[in-house]
Write a structure and sequence with these properties.
Layout: E1 7-10, H1 14-27, H2 39-45, E2 58-66, E3 69-78
Antiparallel strand pairs: 1-2, 2-3
Length: 79
């Protein structure tokens, strides 16, 4: 896979946020040492109404896609 084959999409919809949150489940699916976080905790962490971090910072999230599948995620943060 080359970087030209990877598409970066900004997360703008709730369905995309769900995909962003679930990327690690795909990446670490075969790692017996991986302990997945609670999905609800991940949603709260990314929710500006529930996380006080957003009072001082702004965050944009992106999903990396290859061949129609989510293969990575990016968070750009300005604090």
């Amino acid at each position: 896979m080359t970087y030209e084959e990877v598409e970066i999409i900004e997360v703008e919809k709730p369905s995309q946020l769900a995909g962003f949150i679930k990327v690690p489940w795909k990446i670490y699916a075969k790692d017996p040492n991986w302990v997945p976080p609670l999905i609800s905790a991940q949603r709260d962490m990314l929710n500006p109404k529930k996380n006080p971090f957003f009072r001082y910072a702004s965050v944009k999230t992106y999903i990396a896609r290859h061949g129609g599948e989510n293969v990575g995620r990016i968070a750009a943060i300005v604090n």
